[in-house]
Amino acid sequence: MSKMMRFAKTALKNLFSKPVTTSYPDKPYEYHERTRGHIEIDFENCTLCSLCSRVCPPRAIEVDKRSGNWSINNFDCIQCGYCVEKCVKKCLKIVPGYTAPASVKNVTVLHKEVEKKFPVVDRELCVYCTLCDKKCPVQAITVDRPNKTWELNKQNCIGCGLCEKNCPKKCIKMVM
Amino acid sequence: MNKVYDPVQTNRNVEPENLIEEVRKKRADGKRLLQMFASYIEKHYELVYCFDEGDYRLENIHVVADRSTVVPSVSDIYPYAAPYENEACELFGVKINVPMDGYRHRLYKIAEDAPYVSPYDHDEDSEEHEEEEDGE
Amino acid sequence: MGKRSVIPFGPQHPVLPEPIHLDLVIEDETVVEAIPSIGFVHRGLESLTDKKDFNELVYIIERTCGICSYMHGMGYCEAVERVMKVQIPDRSRFLRTVWAEMSRVHSHLLWLGLLADAFGFEALFYQSWRLRERVLDMFEESTGGRCIFSVNKIGGQLKDVPDDMLKAFSVKFTELEKEIRVMAKTFLEDYTVNKRLKGVGILTKEQALEMGALGPFARGSGVRYDLRETGYAAYPELDFEMCVEKDGDCYARTKVRIEEIFQAISLIRQAIDKMPGGEIAVPVKGNPMGEYAMRLEQPRGEGVYYIKGNGTKFLDRVRLRTPTFANIAPMVQTLKGCKLSDVPLYILSIDPCISCTER
């Protein structure tokens, strides 16, 4: 008989204490600072290089350089944070606050006119270390170390600036 | 500090005809079948059978088969291999003689047959497709 | 001999926690045979290998399941790291252990709640999930998400946890342990709960070995098999004892899981005390070439992560074998001869996670 009603003490204690749940929509929830809610962009610094669009797993971000549009479909976004990690200019960030429910999936579109920039190398400073070749995400630069050649495929280049950032001799510049 | 076992892995290739003999030897030694799965790489199947050799060591047996080879089933030796073989059969289209009574002929209730293999490869056996390929 | 009829116990049912379909052949309230079938949550995740490169696949593989999501990401990253021969830093190994054991605690608390719901004790279900909320709050504070964390990457971790936050976690786990001990008394000693769990669903040790049972399902029957002994992540430097029971009934499996919660809390405290400083990730160059099968101890058993690379950035084959897939055959074996009202209890005692099973 001593093994009966083991739960009675907990049940009595819960009867006389406050409820554990909060009345959520009436009382707003305070998110932690690291909560991944939605993506925000600092559009001033964006160069529309489209790297975020290439790495997004569900393809929620779309970037069109010719018409100058950067758009994100907030309902498709899975809040993984991969675009934040890959952005070259570090203008994307993921902040607390989930997308509010709506009856139609809306897409946020931002517009900006941007001139496409291409990398140009200073031949005297370049040592043909091939680092720009390895870092280019679309394989637009070809460097041949024995023959000392540096070639750019303009059609593939997306103007992201990773080559300029990674050059140890600082001999690459992005120009119009 | 606990004793740490070193999980060594070995791989071996085996022909489809010798598969049943190798699996019988494993059963006689008391080894456990961990998993079995199929891959579809460049128009042929590769079946992998993983065995646990005791002390957390692994041995993987690879069997390469065409789309038309009939692979013998190991479910009479290891009865719990039936779900794995059903999965290879229904998702990839590997030809295995699985005893289907245990699962009423269908483990995965999905609409298409062999969805992991691209639909262009399904009709390879038919003559019309061969003529088209020659023409291209 | 009574009359036989077939009852479909379908993917939607008020007491069934997971979408599995069973055709039960019954004869006057006793189940004679059970025929399973799956495929209701099949998403074909393994066929995405030719569309996403191996770095992006981490995010896809993590989203296979909501309960065991961290271990899937960790297993995939460890497999790719072994193929590419990358050595991750020490702090990253310890952080992986801490998050993995926290995953185990939250998964077992969830299971205890579902078990209480299955035998009709709803108040105990709410108590378990109330304690689980504290663990989920800790996840949100350190990683940003309650169920899906997105902190794994090939070569280490994406986010670092500051040391004062880790010390606060250690204190919170000490308080949580006291409350779980009070609740565990009800599960293990109460008269009505014992009547429902003891002596039912027996799987002997020989049957477990022959049918390939895994995880706490097999450890409740006396099989000594726990993958944490192979020494991945930070386990070689921590002390732990395997929890094994002999009886093989539902009560033994409950006891194994409750002991594992306390063992996981002790492992978390040890790892936080021994946490080294330093960086949390190393850069990774090149593409994977070769194959490897990594094995982990998930909350439900042994998971195998097999990858095969061919030198390009798209992998040839990724295969996850989750423990529930291997446990379905022995579960069907234990269903023979039980009463119809006990069927949900037996399905729950393997801790099914069907969305892991059919990726």
Q: What's the SSE pattern of chain C?
A: EEEHHHHEEHHHHHEEEHHH
CATH class of the largest domain in chain A: Alpha Beta
Query: What is the average per-residue confidence, as pLDDT of chain C, rounded to a whole number?
Result: 87
Work out the helicity level of chain C.
40-55%
Describe this structure in words.
The complex is a heterotrimer of chains A (about 180), B (about 140) and C (about 350). By secondary structure, chain A is of the alpha+beta class. Chain A folds into two domains: about 90 residues, 2-Layer Sandwich (Alpha-Beta Plaits), CATH 3.30.70; about 60 residues, Alpha-Beta Plaits (2-Layer Sandwich). Chain A is about 15% helix and about 20% strand. Chain A has a three-stranded antiparallel sheet, with no helix packed on it. In chain A, strands 1-4 form a two-stranded antiparallel ribbon. Chain A has a two-stranded antiparallel sheet with strand order 6-9. Chain B has one domain. Chain B is α/β, with parallel strands linked by helices. Chain C has about 350 residues and is α+β, with helices and mostly antiparallel strands. In chain C, a hairpin with a 6-residue loop joins strand 7 and strand 8. The longest helix of chain C is centred in the N-terminal third of the chain and has 29 residues. Classes of the chains: A alpha+beta (about 180), B alpha/beta (about 140), C alpha+beta (about 350). At the B-C interface, strand 2 and helix 2 of B face strand 3, helix 7, strand 6, strand 7 and strand 8 of C.
In a few lines, what is going on in this structure?
The complex is a heterotrimer of chains A (176), B (136) and C (359). Chain B has 136 residues and is of the alpha/beta class.
